[in-house]
Amino acid sequence: MFKRFRRAAAPAPQPPANTAPTTQTGVSSHWIDGPSEMAKAAMAYFGTNDRSQDMVLKALHDLVPFASAADFGTGRGSWLKSAIAMGVRDVHGYDIPEIPVEQRQFPADRFTPADLGQPITLGRRFDLAISTEVAEHLPKEHAATFVANVAQAADLVLFSAAIPYQGGAGHVNENWVEYWARMFFALGFQAFDFLRPRFWNEAAIRSYYRQNLLVFAKGEAAARLTGAGLAPTAMPLSLVHPEQYLKAVGRAQPPELARVGADVRHYYDCVTKAPAEIDAVPDRRAYGAEPVGWNAVRAHLSRKG
Question: Nearest-CA neighbor of 13 among 119, 111, 113, 139?
Answer without folding.
Answer: 113
